[in-house]
Design brief:
Blueprint (H helix, E strand, L loop, with lengths): L1 H7 L2 H4 L2 E2 L2 E5 L2 E5 L11 E8 L7 H19 L6 E8 L1 H8 L2 H6 E3 L12 E7 L4 E8 L7 E7 L6 E7 L10 H12 L4 E7 L10 H4 L3 E2 H5 L14 H7 L5 E7 L1 E9 L18 E8 L1
Parallel strand pairs: 4-5, 10-11
Antiparallel strand pairs: 1-8, 2-3, 4-15, 5-7, 6-7, 8-9, 9-10, 11-13, 12-13, 14-15
Length: about 300
């Protein structure tokens, strides 16, 4: 295993791997480079991030319920003039099919993935970007990982004022040596290279060193900035009894940021959300997060 990780740590392995993004046109999803009339960054972007557990049964039903819930958030809680970006983790090929067949997504969003061809593993991250935003680049950076984890980056805005958004899923469980510190460090270097950077997703923060990874990489933790005093748990409350007994409840999911952007109005989403099928299973064992990105 150590030799495998050593091979994976070569510079070429970690180099950005650029990929296409897709828009819905003429009744199909097509690779696109279309731009809105202006490439200027809006003052505020709403960010949602959510891990939809890939291992639980009823995957298509749970993904459909998650999207229906997100649609209600967009219509009821997000002002019409505020563009939205959505990060999903633990997506499967079936989830991509569900996303692509959803009419409101076809009408309003670009997708970073229509198939798993750019993924490292059989489940991965995917990002939905509001069509009113100007995308300049999409790329992935592979982590040294035993689980095929990576960071998915989308650059938004003009070249001199890039907002770089990173959707990530860090290594799960305990590894020897620990892998999450190097994963955050790698992603952070890309964030600090532009005007403003945000990284969000499932950080699997279960060990003591996870509490300081943001400070060691000159990042701010949106929860610590905006919700100090609350427990902020995003995992465990909707897990199976055995998992909850073994691991407890924790704040696995985070939004970290740096440079010319602030994160405001952080809140958890998806609490108690269940599907109607099979006795009403939870849509995910994770809660999601939603916040405003205020660009400076």
């Amino acid at each position: 295993m150590a030799e495998q990780l050593k091979r994976r740590a070569s510079s070429s392995f970690h180099d950005p791997r650029y990929q296409a993004y897709y828009g819905y046109k003429d009744s199909s999803w097509q690779e696109t480079a279309e731009k809105p009339p202006t490439s200027n960054l809006p003052s505020t972007i709403k960010l949602l991030t959510w891990n939809i557990d890939f291992q639980m049964p009823n995957g298509p039903e749970r993904m459909a319920a998650a999207l229906q819930y997100v649609a209600s958030l967009i219509s009821d809680k997000i002002p019409a003039d505020v563009p939205t970006v959505i990060f999903f983790q633990e997506m499967t090929p079936s989830d991509l099919e569900t996303i692509q067949s959803t009419p409101w997504i076809q009408a309003r969003f670009y997708l970073t993935d229509t198939s798993p061809k750019d993924w490292v593993s059989n489940y991965c991250t995917t990002t939905l970007i509001d069509r009113r935003l100007s995308i300049s680049t999409v790329f992935r950076t592979r982590y040294a990982s035993n689980m095929g984890r990576d960071a998915l980056f989308v650059d938004i805005g003009p070249d001199l004022k890039i907002l770089r958004l990173s959707n990530t899923h860090l290594e799960s469980l305990v590894a020897q040596p620990p892998l999450r510190p190097a994963q955050v460090a790698l992603a952070s270097r890309h964030l600090h290279a532009v005007h403003a950077g945000v990284i969000a997703g499932d950080f699997n923060a279960i060990e003591s060193f996870d509490r300081t990874l943001h400070t060691k990489n000159d990042l701010k933790d949106a929860f610590l900035v905006t919700l100090t005093g609350e427990e902020g748990w995003t995992w465990g409350m909707q897990s199976g009894q055995a998992q909850r007994k073994r691991y407890g409840c924790s704040r696995l999911d985070k939004i970290l940021f740096c440079g010319g952007v602030q994160v405001r109005g952080l809140e958890r989403i998806g609490a108690g959300l269940k599907i109607e099928e099979e006795g009403g299973a939870f849509v995910s064992d994770h809660l999601g997060l939603m916040a405003d990105l205020v660009v400076e």
